[in-house]
Amino acid sequence: VELERSGMRNLYVGIDVGGTKIAYGLFNEKKELLGRYKSATNPQIYPEEFGEQIICEMEQLLAQHGFSFQDLKGVCIGMPSSVDFTNGVVLWTSNMVNIKDFHARDYFSKRLPGVEIIVDNDTNLAAVAEHRRGAGCGYEHIIYTAISTGVGSGFIINNKLFRGTYGGAGESGHMIITPDEGIECGCGNRGCIMSYSSGSMVAKHIVNAIKNGRKTIMYDMVEGDLGKINGTVLNEAYRQGDELAIEMLEQMGKYLGIYVYNLFMAFKINCYIFRGGLLNLGQPLFDSIRRYLNRYYKDNKHEIVFKTAQLGADAGIIGAVELLSSNGE
Questions:
Q1: Is 328 helix (H, G, I), strand (E, B) or coil?
Q2: CA 191, CA 179: separation in Å to the nearest integer?
Q3: Considering all CA atoms of the chain, what is the largest pairwise distance in Å, rounded to the nearest integer?
Q4: Are 119 and 90 in contact (CB under 8 A)?
Q5: Counting Cβ atoms within 10 Å, is residue 247 exposed (0-12), middle (13-18) or buried (19+)?
Q6: For residues 43 and 31, what is the distance between their CA atoms, to the nearest angstrom?
Q7: For the chain (length 329 residues), average pLDDT per consecutive 10?
Q8: Which residues of 171-196 are buried (b: 16+ CB within 10 A; e: fewer)?
């Protein structure tokens, strides 16, 4: 796609910050993708260093296509964090523990004068993308859930992204299900949904089980380096019939089934769109979620639809440009 270099601000950059990678998308005013850039996430990085990384990598992306910051109209950054959307503040980030109380919108506004800056939760961006261009098309209400390094959701209600009073709605993975029990999550609590069903936390459950004497082929798969246990290892071990891997999938299904049940009882939203690396576990995971949902949902007169997200890794950057082109709504 070509873009006339008119000297006007007519470019958007969408940024999707994940637990392991940062994805950038360069778009024109027609929301056509012009280019991409990817880098690794540093889980120990601090706000100022993180901000500088984003600026430098945006500059590289623009330069690769013959542009500069002078061509930018807007930048939208999706963070894997609790975000005060109204004030543009990243409150805390469970998988980037030092990114907290970061006044991100102010920071980037100072670095990029004249550029519209939107800071939102990464799952919100993906929810917008799937609702407007993906699996949620045609539904007035959806709940989009990412099951990856963490667990988070985006709510589309009456065809609009719902952010709540402080702009941080959607941290449903941190709803407490077993108070003060289990592994402590990055949110500071024990017993939240995410602590039982996210990739990073399931890996901790597996490591703890191995340290307590459980036998599993996952130990041999990583040659004893427990730090290498992740969703990919779990997936392969499950396919080989490993007992611990099967237990972990069942654990995920149980707590995600309760998660869907609770959200359905609260909102009566019937469309649930799932995305994330752990969905590589495939139909067995969906079957487990559905089985636990059905155990608790007694009044099954209303259909509850499960869908797999359609936009893949581009959902975040697509949602970012959608928000920029619609004034953040």
A1: coil
A2: 5
A3: 66
A4: yes
A5: middle
A6: 31
A7: 56 92 95 96 95 97 95 96 92 89 97 96 94 96 91 94 88 94 91 93 96 97 94 92 96 96 95 86 89 90 92 94 85
A8: bbbbbebeeeebbebbbebebbbbbb
